[in-house]
Amino acid sequence: MEFAELIKTPRVDNVVLHRPFYPAVEGTLCLTGHHLILSSRQDNTEELWLLHSNIDAIDKRFKVFCVFQISEWRLSYVNQEFAVCPSYPPAVTVPKAIDDDALRKVATFRHGGRFPVLSYYHKKNGMVIMRSGQPLTGTNGRRCKEDEKLINATLRAGKRGYIIDTRPLNVAQQARAKGGGFEQEAHYPQWRRIHKSIERYHILQDSLIKLVESCNDQTQNMDRWLSKLEASNWLTHIKEILTTACLAAQCLDREGASILIHGTEGTDSTLQVTSLAQIILEPRSRTIRGFEALIEREWLQAGHPFQQRCAQSAYCNSKQKWESPVFLLFLDCVWQILRQFPCSFEFNENFLIMLFEHAYASQFGTFLGNNESERCKLKLQQKTMSLWSWVNRPSELSKFTNPLFEANNLVIWPSVAPQSLQLWEGIFLRWNRSSKYLDEAYEEMVNIIEYNKQLQAKVNLLRRQLAELETEDGVQESP
Amino acid sequence: MEFAELIKTPRVDNVVLHRPFYPAVEGTLCLTGHHLILSSRQDNTEELWLLHSNIDAIDKRFKVFCVFQISEWRLSYVNQEFAVCPSYPPAVTVPKAIDDDALRKVATFRHGGRFPVLSYYHKKNGMVIMRSGQPLTGTNGRRCKEDEKLINATLRAGKRGYIIDTRPLNVAQQARAKGGGFEQEAHYPQWRRIHKSIERYHILQDSLIKLVESCNDQTQNMDRWLSKLEASNWLTHIKEILTTACLAAQCLDREGASILIHGTEGTDSTLQVTSLAQIILEPRSRTIRGFEALIEREWLQAGHPFQQRCAQSAYCNSKQKWESPVFLLFLDCVWQILRQFPCSFEFNENFLIMLFEHAYASQFGTFLGNNESERCKLKLQQKTMSLWSWVNRPSELSKFTNPLFEANNLVIWPSVAPQSLQLWEGIFLRWNRSSKYLDEAYEEMVNIIEYNKQLQAKVNLLRRQLAELETEDGVQESP
């Protein structure tokens, strides 16, 4: 097949070319079998002919939207200038029945302006996951009719939904004294509120410090190691997060109910739950591109404050109060599911470890800043390369591909029994001596699979040669 | 290659044929490319011609001896009638310098008549592991010149050895009150005694019961699970045993010193250490046949009382006082090493699980009885099939073969850091839901490797076809 045959869009109008030291050129981009041609279609102006073989790398800067065929949801650009919610991206998906004015009002009623937006649409039954900040009810039990209307607009006739508050009830109640709060059932009669308890901030930080300290403990005493592992509470946090994600997934898939998830700000535990629920429910999020899109949507564009949370190395034990291994806990939860379903993920453990490393220190711009607004102000899209453009190169992708992957279109339900959860050796015991041999075993498996491909190619080649020889024989014999 | 070309021994004399309802026939056995022929070489007597394709199964009943080319060791049949040591096999390997009369005297000085015998010969430097029962010194510090002579006979001129007592010093001292004891350094001046502490009997039993109970605990509480795992002490026992085995292996391989290992009876912790040291030191013991031979030599012929120790299911919590998961702990230690060196073993985890199951309940005779003497009395060799004859069938072997195996001729040093040791999911969480998917992943890997073989065969076939066609072309062109 010729390369030209693979070109789906041979021409794009209104393309702008930016180059250092030159004025921008607007024109039409044409893609041929051999060249990329940019022309301003005006006489006497430069026309750029670029030979494909001279292109070293393509940095694809993408935004990820769910595209809906249904009447019920719409893209809103109410946050175009980041004025309504500084931690939201310029475009968000909201119920079609709610206009931008109503969204502005709801934003004043939600922590950080984080009005409820669509996080995930479950194709199977049309149920959704929404996420937001806490409602600012305060001690007086303030209401917001638009907020109530927005949330109810996502429910079909006669249906009920679940609000999953990631804080225990007493914490949610205490939040009222600081102007926060939770949805009163009287005002949201179609919704049932469930409180879970996912820890936040310094509690997670302390947990990580204790865990790393115990992993590095050289005293060689089994009791002490197990006691310290227990005292770190790290696996307890993993279990809490996974349990809440399973609950969210169950509401959608088994109860056939839509859900709204939030904690206080809606930028930490909320995102852990919405993204893990998608790993459970949506096969595409278990592929490499799908998982990249999930990170982009549910962490970067959703405004997880990476710069604050991942300010210093995870192993550093002098932490600022805004630091917290929220993203690492999410990756650890994904690893737990991957370990339980080793054939259901297109990526391997190394992919997760790579993301952990880049969240803390990276030569790419992807994880810089705390939200899309900050990244725009810093002009990161112009000044830095995207991590994804590097990761998606075939030479890199091969390192992150799970050789056992078999696409599995089912919902996968991880076990959250404490016996089923393990310490993530690849992160926490990575400098441990034995992991070298585990890596070697993995290499060996990859080699076997690579050899498989070579053999298959050889079979094809030999078959072709055989067919050619047989044809030649035929030609010789026919006259 | 013709089958006939593979026959190494085409003829064996003095073979006896036993058949039900017929008298035994003695004669010569001949093996041809198609038949097995037994002939008494006398006129008018039956000659048996058996077509190979009519043979369904071969039950190979083997005894495993180390065959030495050196002048320093000999096989002794002093225990031919099991009179000197009821828990030893009829033939044992002892220093050449010590005659059978001396062995009889030494037997009276060692617990259960278990005089020191050869367990392992380290080819690299000629150092050895010996094992025995404790010396019966009693409170009076009784000596036995023959015992001292026997042990010293294994040392080369000017060399020192190590006695590894698997009991802590205070336990060894207390044993004197019951007639037991340990080697006084004054009487064994060339030997340095090291005390380790490997637990025995009901302590291991209690540990297993606690562990199984905690594995089955459904309370879904992480703290409780980790506390109970710690309280069971199972991993502590694993660590103690592995540490002592590493010490033994280090004495041989790094210190260049021979060792004698014993605890009280020399039938439990002693065998754990001698067999694990061989796994560490000897590449052959990491192959399937080598590991079978190790179990045969160091557990069955060495007189580990399987019938007593494995009287009831490991999961049963009403135990008799002589029950103890000594063999399971050994298998678990092997699994820990296998997990750390996933390419160095020819067998996989399923092989270890299968051995665990057969040690407790089996349709084969291999693990019945407490020692060779009991198995002889029960005529198990005549009345039952050997487990190995079943395991070694190609259809079964394929289930137990590690697809990642690459022969590794090195000594392998496992990490015994508590962080490196894990709970053996395949045994203790085998009914856990997630293990199903782990099994599937393993199957997938095996399938890939099987497919590899098929592809390789296809490549060979196509190459042959191609070569034939090319030759035909040549023939056509030459005239």
TrEMBL record, chains A, B:
Pfam family, one: Myotub-related
UniProt-listed CDD domains: PTP-MTMR9
GO molecular function (one): protein phosphatase binding
Matching PROSITE patterns: PPASE_MYOTUBULARIN
Presence of keyword Glycoprotein: no
Coiled-coil regions listed in the entry: 438-472
Keywords, alphabetical: Coiled coil
Gene Ontology CC terms, in alphabetical order: cytoplasm
InterPro entries recorded: Myotubularin, Myotubularin-like_Pase_dom, PH-like_dom_sf, Prot-tyrosine_phosphatase-like
GO biological process, one term: phosphatidylinositol dephosphorylation
Family, per entry: Belongs to the protein-tyrosine phosphatase family. Non-receptor class myotubularin subfamily.
Name of this chain's protein: Myotubularin phosphatase domain-containing protein
Species in which this protein is naturally found: Muntiacus muntjak (Barking deer)
